[in-house]
């Protein structure tokens, strides 16, 4: 019984491959008649093994270089807020003044992750100071 299913599968696959080859040939004839060069090569098939399938297009996005800072963001915030409590934007300016560089487009999110970590900073009136 298993052999019958296997034979049916092989016959169906071969007939589909023959039909695919005929359709590719007909499409090629239509493109020649229209004067269009085929932009997308046909996929590799058992009847034409020298053709390789086209690679998917992935636009190259520029990669950012990894940012290396001398101190951690937590330490930089601690240094900025040790003298007096500061608001988020004041902390951001002070941290940047220390030379800290952010690798993100939204550095306030990085500040929030450190500022709202339990036990590190206390908040009073929208200003943060070390706990």
Task: Give structural notes.
This protein has 131 residues and is mainly α. It folds into two domains: 1-56; 73-130, Arc Repressor Mutant, subunit A (Orthogonal Bundle), CATH 1.10.10. It is built from four helices and two strands; from the N terminus they run H-H-H-H-E-E. It has helices at 2-34, 73-81, 88-97, 107-115, and strands at residues 121-124, 127-130. Strands 1-2 form a two-stranded antiparallel sheet. A hairpin with a 2-residue loop joins strand 1 and strand 2. The chain is elongated, with a radius of gyration of 32 Å. The mean pLDDT is 83.
Largest sheet: 2 strands, antiparallel
Straight-line distance between termini: 76 Å
Query: What is the fold named in CATH at topology level of the largest domain?
Result: Arc Repressor Mutant, subunit A
Number of helices: 4
Write the layout of secondary structure elements.
Blueprint: H1 2-34, H2 73-81, H3 88-97, H4 107-115, E1 121-124, E2 127-130
Helix pairs in contact: 2-3, 3-4
